[in-house]
Amino acid sequence: MLADITLGQFYPADSFVHKMDPRVKIVLLIVFIVGIFLAKNLIAFIPAVLFVILAARMSRLPVRLLIRSLKPLRFILIFTFILNIFFLQGNLPEGQEPTPVLDWWIIHLTAEGILQALLYSLRLIVLVLGSSLLTLSTSPIALTDGLEMLMTPLKVIRFPAHEIAMMMSIALRFIPTLLEEADKIMKAQTARGADFESGNILKRAKAMIPLLVPLFVSAFRRAGDLAMAMEARCYHGGEGRTRLRVLKCTWRDLWGAAAAVLMVAGCVLISEFVHII
Asked: What is the pLDDT of residue 155?
């Protein structure tokens, strides 16, 4: 399961998406999130799904990586879908009654509730895929530079843009490292007789305690080593700092922005004028 977590991983490739400006990609992700939340029915998600498919093809990312990004969330997806089925009746016009599908004891399922549950589940899936595309196609250094440049105007109100961007980048960078460390600890303890698979949820959670303690110790040790390394290299924040690569917007970024605008416009127009499902 730990190997299925792709958050913070970077997949190097020579592709259209990889060469885009990280600032533009971050803004496009925000626009993409706005677009999928503006989609009010299943058909309105077609532009968002096509946008993800196009971005995935142009980034040359393996499909297995994108699918792996969904595996850790499968329990949340199923749990959310079930809750929405039982507690949502769908967005119905005033005075219209929902269409019953199953009415037995305390179970009351409606066609509108099922469609609404599918809508929320699809929204979560597309959101995760879009976020994974950003982290898989953008190196941590480029992501840090992009975040810092986007937050630079906030320095007027003494906002620590460089420090916040650096912390977010370090956090993303160390997620795969900590997952690898956790996997090693789990295998070592399994070889000593530890059982992480059997039992109910409470028993599994209790079995994770021997895993978390050495993992936290390792994380603090790595943090200390990183702080000492940064101090040894005379790191003093973003004051007077230069960059090896200067960020520049190119025609790729204009095409990406145009595609994102068309995607949002498609979601909004379909939501307003198409009311099939």
From this structure: 79
